[in-house]
Write a structure and sequence with these properties.
Layout (H helix, E strand, L loop, with lengths): L17 H9 L4 E5 L2 E4 H17 L7 E5 L4 H12 L3 E4 L6 H11 L3 E5 L3 H9 L9 E5 L9 H9 L4 H7 L15 E6 L9 E5 H14 L7 E3 L7 H4 L1 H8 L2 E3 L6 H11 L3 E4 L1 H9 L10 E6 L5 H10 L1 E9 L4 E5 L11 H8 L4 E2 L3 E7 L15 E7 L5 E2 L3 H7 E2 L2 E10 L5 E6 L4 E3 L2 E3 L1 H9 L4 E11 L3 E10 L9 H9 L10 E4 L13 H10 L10
Parallel strand pairs: 1-10, 3-4, 3-5, 5-6, 9-10, 9-11, 11-12, 12-13, 25-26
Antiparallel strand pairs: 1-2, 7-8, 8-18, 13-14, 14-15, 16-17, 17-20, 19-20, 20-21, 22-23, 24-25
Protein name: Acyl-activating enzyme 6
InterPro entries: AMP-bd_C, AMP-bd_C_sf, AMP-binding_CS, AMP-dep_synth/lig_dom, ANL_N_sf
Pfam families: AMP-binding, AMP-binding_C
């Protein structure tokens, strides 16, 4: 069999862009995108993407060049996930909550040649371009008008009217017969995503057509997504390309319901109006849905895939009582989506609700598309004991891993070594082989030589009926070195504010002494990234500014 080798017929480059072409054939008359009063079919979406891709190519932007997008979950944002790479360019989605200075840094670092900008975000992007050094070629700006633009807002209208390029103008002028560019090599870069900023030092993650093809297939299989689901976009598309479900919805002919922003009332209305079947989002979205004061049980069940920080069991319990069927997964920008999930066992259905919620809070086992996942001692590289107690670093291996960090070989080699991606997340493996995250390595609190998992403390705090959000970080301590400091926001209507000592005693009754927070800080809302992750680096700064807890105050 040695003479049997790959050939042009069996080694075509893999790319998720082919899913859109197929969707236009199979699901052509079915709705693809719904937004306010606008509805497109899959044949229309394919044609619009071809037109935009041809217009991008006509601008003289070379193959492999970076094209950025700053937009919320609107139809143009969805279309650009296909149109930019169909033009042979590398798609760079930018977090819509970033300030002008940070956007300028990303545009300069990526050497972006063009940037598509939602009209509501024009000011911050134009300011960011003004901050670029004189020797840096600014990107071409293409404005995306929105059907919610108000007629009395003269500024966006004047900008859009005077500007040479607008999104809909490109759609009108583009060629619907454009021969889009299949990559010459499946390892060619397709996307550039900057990490979410929870560590305050974002890096540019580059993914290939191949890795995104694999993760899209894997994500659909892992979540058991059926044909033609109705998917509500509560997860920002700019966050790891919507965990690959941007391309995944094309693969299964689903309907994408777009919302400009997350609002619990609008989400519940959309779920019932459009008969939504699937949603994704960070655990904070679950909390907001669970704590919405006017929440009522859903008319029909909705599959909800959550990831990021482990969802507190109390939150899982509450959202499932409303009709959301919660699935828990783990991933990161560097792997393009969910690669570890809590694969559910039928026997667990007989367990009490609280135990089911606890099990669902675990990350689980590798998905089919991932080759291996393990928890290892970061120094020796050896697997930790499967006792659910011994902590180590989570490592991953598989086809959906990134090519590396843009212009940062040092960071790439630091996290991709010895055949593994070292995630920086601390976890354990239970006797049944299921993995559970305990913390980010930088978030582990070492108090008096004992390791404290902030996630475990947060889980207890979330079980308090007054708590809406909880985050725990280290505060300097004169005696212990550092001790847990809890930041809390309260549920709507909670009055009066519970005293700090009451929260400490609540934890003391449920946690080992050394894990109990010594400081409690109440906030109206915890600082978060646009993807719903709490910005712990901001909270660490606040805790540090509080100063070292004096020895006399230790408990």
């Amino acid at each position: 069999m040695d003479q049997l080798k790959p050939n042009p017929a069996n080694s075509c480059p893999l790319t998720p862009l082919t899913f859109l072409q197929r969707a236009a054939l199979v699901y052509g008359d079915s709705p693809s995108v719904v937004y306010n009063q606008t509805t497109y079919t899959w044949s229309q979406t394919y044609a619009r993407c071809l037109r935009v891709a041809s217009a991008i190519a006509s601008l003289g932007i070379g193959s492999g060049a970076v094209v950025s997008v700053v937009a919320p979950n609107i139809p143009a944002m969805y279309e650009l996930q296909f149109a930019v790479p169909m033009a042979g360019c590398v798609l760079n989605n930018i977090n819509t909550r970033l300030d002008a200075r940070t956007i300028a840094v990303l545009l300069r670092h990526s050497e972006s040649r063009a940037v598509f900008v939602d009209s509501h975000l024009r000011r911050v992007v134009l300011e960011s371009i003004s901050l670029l050094p004189p020797n840096v070629q600014p990107p071409l700006v293409i404005f995306i008008a929105d059907d919610s633009d108000s007629d009395d807002d003269d500024e966006p209208r004047s900008i859009l009217d005077l500007h040479e390029y607008t999104y809909e103008g490109m759609v009108k002028k583009g060629n619907p017969e454009f021969k889009w560019q299949i990559p010459k090599n499946e390892w060619d870069p397709m996307t550039l995503n900057y990490t979410s900023g929870t560590t305050s030092s974002p890096k540019g993650v580059v993914h290939s057509h191949r890795s995104l093809f694999i993760i899209t297939f894997d994500s659909l299989v892992n979540w058991s997504v059926p044909k033609q689901p109705v998917y509500l976009w509560t997860l920002p598309m700019f966050h790891s390309n919507g965990w690959s479900y941007t391309w995944g919805m094309a693969a299964v002919g689903g309907t994408s319901i777009c919302l400009r922003r997350f609002d619990a009332r609008l989400v519940y209305e959309a779920v019932n109006r459009y008969k939504v079947t699937h949603m994704c989002g960070a655990p904070v979205i679950l909390s907001m849905l669970a704590n919405y004061p006017y929440a009522r049980p859903l008319e029909s069940p909705v599959e909800f895939l959550t990831g990021g920080a482990p969802p507190p069991p109390a939150v899982v319990l509450r959202t499932e009582s409303l009709g959301f069927r919660v699935s828990h997964g783990y991933g990161m920008t560097e792997v393009a989506g969910v690669v570890v999930s809590c694969a559910w066992k039928l026997k667990w259905n007989a367990f009490p609700a609280a135990e089911r919620a606890r099990l669902k809070a675990r990350q689980g086992v590798r998905t089919l598309g991932l080759t291996a996942a393990d928890v290892v001692d970061p120094k020796s590289g050896k697997s930790v004991k499967r006792d659910g107690l011994t902590m180590g670093e989570i490592v991953l291996r598989g086809g959906s891993l990134m090519l590396g960090y843009l212009k940062n070989p040092e960071a790439t080699s630091k996290c991709m070594r010895d055949g593994w991606l070292y995630t920086g997340d601390v976890g354990v493996i239970h006797p049944d082989g299921y993995l559970e995250i305990k913390d980010r390595s930088k978030d582990i609190i070492i108090t008096g030589g004992e390791n404290v998992s902030s996630v475990e403390v947060e889980s207890v705090l979330y079980s308090n009926p007054a708590v809406n959000e909880a985050a725990v970080v280290a505060r300097p301590d004169e005696y212990w070195g550092e001790t847990p400091c809890a930041f809390l926001s309260l549920k709507e209507g909670v009055s009066p504010k519970p005293p700090e000592n009451e929260m400490i005693e609540f934890c003391r009754a449920r946690l080992p002494h050394y894990m109990v927070p010594k400081t409690v800080v109440f906030m109206a809302e915890l600082p978060k990234t646009a993807t719903g992750k709490v910005q712990k680096f901001t909270l660490r700064d606040i805790a540090h500014k509080l100063g070292a807890l004096p020895s006399a105050s230790r408990m």
